[in-house]
């Protein structure tokens, strides 16, 4: 495996990817993780484009929302992928990304419009603060900007990012190889309320939209 300068991310190719995965599982290298995110972030955009939303049933959903939902799936896939199993990461990740998007759409479809509106306000405030501050916005800064309590903020984040997997039972196939994987089998959620996890999701979104 070719080593790169310390100030550069590893270049992951089809030939060396398995070796990098083995190394990543041993030491959880942030640089390898970032390189994996960079390589596979386009899968989130691909999945978001593939999903056909019925605006009659689910209103106020934008492409960026789908990217955000899918970003959770990509990060979960990186956390949970086992390189020793006979499934390519692309297959596993794409299944998890699409499952995450569908899962969030089902949940949002059951939320009142007022709650969806409040969630969007939080996201807009976060984006504005990050543009102004040139760094990740802290929850305290977001609630100060919006004039809401931390309890309200946590409630909205819970609505926006909790997972429900009761109706996911389909099989997803990439078409690239013989890999076939159940969406239900991939959706064991990470702690999506963790601030570091949320910040990483925002970083993935910025690479895409």
UniProtKB/TrEMBL annotation:
GO molecular function: DNA-binding transcription factor activity
Any single biological process term in GO: DNA-templated transcription initiation
InterPro entries reported in the protein's UniProt record: RNA_pol_sigma-70_dom (IPR014284), RNA_pol_sigma70_r2 (IPR007627), RNA_pol_sigma_r2 (IPR013325), RNA_pol_sigma_r3/r4-like (IPR013324), Sigma-70_RNA_pol_init_factors (IPR050239)
Residue ranges that the Swiss-Prot or TrEMBL entry lists as coiled coil: none
RNA polymerase sigma-70 region domain: residues covered: 37-108
SUPFAM superfamilies: Sigma2 domain of RNA polymerase sigma factors, Sigma3 and sigma4 domains of RNA polymerase sigma factors
Domain of life (superkingdom): Bacteria
PANTHER family: RNA POLYMERASE SIGMA FACTOR RPO, RNA POLYMERASE SIGMA FACTOR SIGD, CHLOROPLASTIC
Protein name (record): Sigma-70 family RNA polymerase sigma factor
Protein species of origin: Brachyspira aalborgi
């Amino acid at each position: 495996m070719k080593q790169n300068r310390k100030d550069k991310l590893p270049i992951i190719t089809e030939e060396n990817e398995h070796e990098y995965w083995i190394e990543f599982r041993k030491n959880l290298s942030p640089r390898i993780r970032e390189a994996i995110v960079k390589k596979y972030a386009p899968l989130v955009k691909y999945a978001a484009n593939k999903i056909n939303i019925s605006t009659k049933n689910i209103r106020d959903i934008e492409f960026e929302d789908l990217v955000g939902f899918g970003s959770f799936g990509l990060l979960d896939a990186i956390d949970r992928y086992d390189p020793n199993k006979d499934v390519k990461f692309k297959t596993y990740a794409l299944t998890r990304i699409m499952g995450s998007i569908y899962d969030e759409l089902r949940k949002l479809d059951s939320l009142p419009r007022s709650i969806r509106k409040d969630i969007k306000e939080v996201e807009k405030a976060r984006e504005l603060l990050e543009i102004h501050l040139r760094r990740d916005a802290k929850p305290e800064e977001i609630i100060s900007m919006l004039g809401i309590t931390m309890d309200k903020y946590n409630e909205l984040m819970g609505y926006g990012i909790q997972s429900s997997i009761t109706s996911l039972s389909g099989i997803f196939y990439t078409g690239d190889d013989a890999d076939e994987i159940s969406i239900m089998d991939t959706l064991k959620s990470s702690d999506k309320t963790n601030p570091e996890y949320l910040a990483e999701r925002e970083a993935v979104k910025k690479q895409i939209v």
